[in-house]
Q: What sequence folds into this?
């Protein structure tokens, strides 16, 4: 039974995996990639999918743990700069989703 | 683009989705850092967007980026370019030109295949799902997004075009911004610049205070002895209270006179006198910002169901609470969020995501987050900033500020001033490029 569940789980993730490995976020499934809408809060300053070339630091392709840890550190900074306040707006789970999404952008 | 898409676009009778628009979609040379429109999402539908400001441009772009080529997007806009309100206070002190604040729609068409229709809306029919333009053209939609921005009440005494030209609001960047700049230039030392701030909600909460600072800074250097008298209908500074209290009481002390809780009864443009709840006041320049309401297309089409001024929406989708299939984003929508360009851009993304999901037969994201951010110049080389994060609260069905995630700069700085332009450039790129 466990094996069956595992296999089913793997199948459930297949569309997500496909969506993420395609270049330029070419989605093949109707379901939007997890974290995309949350991560779009970054695009105003960091560019589409975090690929800024004219503004604040580029986020696309950084490792997920790097983005996650950086955002978590920002939450404790005093006095807070703009990003330090912004980072306080998300739960750990949401930060994880954002970090995972941005790390997969190329 | 497949055959079906072509015929869907082509069948949008008179929608202005030209052959040029279609071919540009195919051969669009897209800079690597910008997105490309996917062709294999399996999602299809027709979306008409009314209004090409911060919200409308962003929603058109992201509907294509996230919906793919099967989502036909037509943007209806009466102007050829969008004039940015953000940074337009810097036209007043000569640091920016109005020309440098213009943003066109060709990127949206060429890079993302957004169909452009230059025209004005006569009526919306939410039953037959169609929009009729003043020239008779009719656009049929599966989903409609209305993003008209704001309109103004008429201040008693300023009914004529001549009076309005003499007492500009300059609160929609454009000709009036230049008029106000010229009036400043014509001031003599020791003059009085009076400005009025309407009761909340109005567009860009820190904007009027920022304007008072920029004008005061310019007058101090160029027309010594002049004063900026700020008549605020609100009981106190509505945004960045620390930065602006410091600016009024310290940085621009003796130049800015801030008078809260003052409402305007009427303005006489011939004698340049304001009749206010605190008596009469004469000034050399009067910059009167009237009370706001949603753009006219909202009230014309019975969508202004909040206080008769604003469009009520469900903030999970931005769908109207009175007209199914019609979504309202940006300043025209009645939400708990500020009326400003940066957050309008994020509302547009939530709306685009929701529409794409709805077209695919899915439910909208149940827990969206938006953020607001902006920089406010205090002098010609220093700025402060303001930020807030809003999360969906299922109990009230509204966007609520996340505790601890809002605030303003601890002090104005030159670094903030430089970052302001970076922010502006990236925000405009995310919306128009």
A:
């Amino acid at each position: 039974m466990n094996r069956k569940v595992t296999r089913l789980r793997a199948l459930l993730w297949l569309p997500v995996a496909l969506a993420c490995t395609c270049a330029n976020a070419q989605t093949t499934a109707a379901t939007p990639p997890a974290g995309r809408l949350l991560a779009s809060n970054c695009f105003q300053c960091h560019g589409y999918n975090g690929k800024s070339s004219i503004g604040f630091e580029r986020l696309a392709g950084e490792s997920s743990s790097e983005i996650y840890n950086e955002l978590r550190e920002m939450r404790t900074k005093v006095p807070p700069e703009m990003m330090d306040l912004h980072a306080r707006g998300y739960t750990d789970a949401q930060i994880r989703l954002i970090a995972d999404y941005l790390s997969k952008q190329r | 683009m497949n055959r079906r898409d072509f015929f869907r676009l082509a069948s949008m009778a008179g929608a202005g989705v030209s052959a040029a628009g279609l071919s540009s979609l195919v051969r669009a040379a897209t800079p690597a850092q910008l997105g490309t429109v996917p062709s294999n999402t399996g999602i299809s539908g027709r979306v008409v967007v009314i209004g090409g400001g911060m919200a409308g441009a962003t929603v058109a772009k992201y509907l294509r980026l996230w919906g793919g080529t099967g989502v036909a997007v037509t943007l209806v806009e009466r102007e050829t370019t969008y004039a940015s309100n953000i940074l337009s206070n810097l036209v007043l002190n000569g640091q920016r030109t109005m020309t440098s604040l213009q943003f066109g729609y060709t990127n949206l068409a060429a890079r993302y295949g957004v169909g452009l229709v230059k025209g004005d809306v006569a009526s919306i029919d939410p039953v037959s799902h169609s929009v009729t333009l003043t020239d008779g053209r009719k656009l049929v939609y599966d989903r409609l997004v209305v993003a008209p921005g704001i309109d103004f009440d008429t201040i008693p005494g300023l009914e004529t075009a001549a009076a309005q030209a003499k007492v500009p609001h300059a609160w929609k960047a454009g000709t009036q911004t230049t008029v106000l700049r010229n009036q400043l230039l014509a001031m003599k030392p020791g003059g009085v610049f009076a400005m009025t701030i309407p009761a909340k909600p109005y567009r860009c909460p820190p904007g009027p205070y920022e304007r008072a600072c920029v004008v005061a800074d310019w007058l101090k250097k160029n027309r010594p002895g002049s004063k900026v008298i700020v008549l605020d209908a609100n009981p106190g500074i509505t945004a960045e209270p620390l930065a602006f209290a410091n600016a009024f009481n310290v940085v621009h002390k003796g130049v800015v006179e801030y008078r809260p809780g003052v409402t305007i009864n009427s303005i006489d443009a011939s004698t340049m006198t304001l009749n206010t709840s605190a008596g009469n006041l004469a000034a050399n320049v009067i910059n009167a910002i009237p009370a706001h309401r949603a753009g006219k297309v909202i009230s014309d089409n019975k969508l202004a169901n909040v206080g008769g001024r604003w469009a009520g929406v469900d903030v999970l989708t931005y769908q109207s609470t009175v007209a199914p299939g019609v979504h309202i984003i940006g300043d025209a929508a009645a939400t708990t969020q500020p009326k400003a360009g940066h957050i309008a851009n994020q509302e547009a993304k939530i709306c685009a995501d929701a529409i794409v999901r709805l077209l695919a037969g899915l439910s909208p994201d149940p827990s969206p987050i938006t953020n607001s951010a902006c920089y406010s110049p205090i002098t010609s080389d220093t700025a402060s900033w303001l930020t807030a994060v809003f999360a969906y609260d299922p109990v009230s069905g509204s966007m609520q500020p996340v505790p601890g995630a809002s605030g303003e700069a601890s002090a104005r700085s030159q670094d903030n001033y430089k970052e302001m332009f970076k922010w502006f450039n990236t925000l405009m790129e995310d919306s128009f490029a």
